[in-house]
């Protein structure tokens, strides 16, 4: 039996970043009871671009700053990110985006 399921660490983060696909993002989001909308995808793509540029998943403050810079001040607010990714936006969004856990997130 071949299992094409990507490997995740004990916290549910993707071990091989190259295994990420939009389909996997939908699957991971579903397991977290999040239905991805265009607003979610905006953040997911921004996170993946951020990771490609800096090789790190942003914690809340840098995430808010990056969102504000790229998508505008209205979206660059922690309350907006919490509405999309309840609890810990940097952790949930990174997980769905197939990125490592942000360094400063518990």
UniProtKB/TrEMBL annotation:
What the protein does comes down to: Part of a sulfur-relay system.
Which Pfam family is an annotated match for this chain, by its short name? DsrC
Query: Which InterPro entries does UniProt cross-reference here?
Result: DsrC-like_C, DsrC-like_dom_sf, DsrC-like_N, DsrC/TusE
Chief location bin: cytoplasm
EC numbers, comma separated: 2.8.1.-
What residue intervals traverse the membrane?
none
Protein name as catalogued: Sulfurtransferase
PANTHER family the UniProt entry points to = SULFURTRANSFERASE TUSE
Keywords assigned by UniProt, alphabetized = Cytoplasm, Transferase
Query: What NCBIfam families does this protein's entry cite?
Result: dsrC_tusE_dsvC
Compartment(s) where it occurs, according to its Swiss-Prot or TrEMBL record: Cytoplasm
